[in-house]
Amino acid sequence: MTEIQIGQAKRARRAYSFDDIAIVPSRRTRDPEEVSTHWQIDAYRFDLPVIAAPMDSVMSPTTAIAMGRFGGLGVLNLEGLWTRYEDPEPLLEEVAGLTGTEATRRMQEIYDESIKPDLITERLREMRAAGVTVAGSLSPQRTKEFAKTVVDAGVDMFVIRGTTVSAEHVSSQAEPLNLKEFIYELDVPVIVGGCATHTAALHLMRTGAAGVLVGFGGGAAHTTRTVLGVAVPMASAVADVAAARRDYLDESGGRYVHVIADGSIGTSGDISKAIACGADAVMVGSPFARATDAPGRGFHWGTEAHHAELPRGQRVQFDTVGTIEEILFGPSRVADGTMNLIGALKRSMATTGYTDCKEFQRVEVVVE
């Protein structure tokens, strides 16, 4: 890939966001009803290639159960309010009512409450009792501490999610999490991320992960680029990690690791473009924050927003547009791609002649 000279001492490569690319129609079209959006990771098959992000504004045990019944996967944040408080509803109401600069400070205070293992167990068992696939998320820093509690509670899928996760974290302060050893000893499939480059993804795949998250999560609610200067345009990131998946498939003799786009997924068009760039599924936050039945009550925030030392996220307000079911399946009452996400994905696939998501990864794209 051609590099651009920033100055005499620094070169860079050009990277593209989802807004920079477009999907090209092919010579063949299909009826949307003939298109399948199913997706399978490990032993778990889903009707939708959509994972609801583990963010308190989006996922509660109730909404995670609803996502499972709709055919997707809801991931509960096991470091969130639902595992810190017996009844977090009054606090969610309070967060929705905060104004201005007080929001970050007060959220830091609220999230300073300790995580309670018995609440982790209770929330996951509530999801299991509903008969849906149970998934919970921890940060790399908390994984060692609570992993046994999570697995003993009966989780089906374990998500290790951070702003950026590497297979080679170096620390002089504490022994870092050995991902390869941890995943090997675990009896459940692990999804880990985020990452944004071919090399980082390849190293994560070698740890034995079932899926790799691409991006830094938080999307509309994070300010990582402003605070840390760290960002990678998602179209290029997904395509690079998809290439790592191909290379690892050859290297491992046939082991397929799923690529999950996590970040900058704000509309149905972004979902289509993510899969077109090579993603097997997408992790979605902000579109579900627009739901009338989302826990955030029209507000959206991630774990970065209440970091004790360096907040790099913000509480974002959205206009609510409908229920989670309507956001997934319609009918849509807006023309901006924030409702009927699955109907739009099916129509995009049908317009280009593809019958399933795996085939759709081969669709032609152009840079606008």
Salient structural properties:
16 strands, two-stranded antiparallel sheet, globular, alpha/beta, TIM Barrel, single chain
Describe this structure in words.
With 368 residues, this protein is α/β, with parallel strands linked by helices. The chain has a single domain (17-367), classed as TIM Barrel (Alpha-Beta Barrel). Helix content is 35%, strand content 17%. Strands 6-7-8-9-10-11-12-13 form an eight-stranded parallel barrel, surrounded by five helices. Strands 1-2 form a two-stranded antiparallel ribbon. A two-stranded antiparallel ribbon has the order 3-16. Helix 1 (61-70) packs parallel to helix 4 and helix 4 crosses helix 5 (140-152). The protein is globular, with a radius of gyration of 20 Å. The two termini are 18 Å apart. The relative contact order is 0.18. The model has no long low-confidence stretch (mean pLDDT 91).
The multimeric state of the shown protein is single chain
Note the overall shape.
globular
CATH architecture: Alpha-Beta Barrel
Total number of helices: 14
* Total beta-strand segments: 16
The biggest sheet amounts to:
8 strands, parallel, barrel
- The CATH homologous superfamily name equals Aldolase class I
CATH topology: TIM Barrel
Number of domains: 1
Would you identify the regions where 5 or more consecutive residues have pLDDT less than 50?
Answer: none
Q: What is the string of helix and strand elements? A: EEEEEEHEHHHEHEHEHEHHEHEHEEHHHE
Strand order of the largest sheet: 6-7-8-9-10-11-12-13
Helicity range: 25-40%
